Amino acid sequence: MTVMATPRPTGHPGYSETLPREPESAAVARRLVRTALAAWGLEDHIDDAMVVITELVSNAVDHGRLASIRVVVSRPTETWVRLGVTDRSKAIPLMRIDSNGDQVRGRGLVLVDSLTERWGTDLYQWGKQVWGELKCEPAQ
Q1: Secondary structure of the chain in the HEC alphabet?
Q2: Roughly how many angstroms between the first and final C-alpha of the chain, as a whole number?
């Protein structure tokens, strides 16, 4: 028996997955983003969304406290996609605007800021979610 799900325009309940807090989880997060945006007919936004989720996962891997993180891809309205990564650290990420010398790392939030309409951090009693939102119109 095959069960078919009918996609809703805003994608509720969304897509989420708990992943190990390790660099390899970025690839799984990218697949989750690609799946969600394809299901919602937002293929034109996949490349930017995959860069954003990669940077958010990278920050959680570097600064989280426990062994796992949670990746969430949601569509709160028809024109917005929210990409979030939750970890158990309460440390608020800061966007580096200095050149950081010859360091290759440390500028991920600059990318997030440039590719999203808005981004931020939701603090919880036990940790935080760092998120970025893309304004997305379905392909015509």
Answers
A1: CCCCCCCCCCCCCCEEEEEECCCCHHHHHHHHHHHHHHHCCCHHHHHHHHHHHHHHHHHHHHHCCCCEEEEEEEEEECCEEEEEEEECCCCCCCCCCCCCCCCCCCCHHHHHHHHCCEEEEEECCCCEEEEEEEECCCCC
A2: 33
Q: Write out the two tokens for 26.
A: 């970025």
pLDDT in tens, 62-121: 999 899 999 999 999 989 999 999 999 999 888 877 655 555 455 789 999 999 999 999
Q: What domains can you pick out in the chain, each with its CATH number?
A: 15-135 (3.30.565.10)
pTM: 0.85
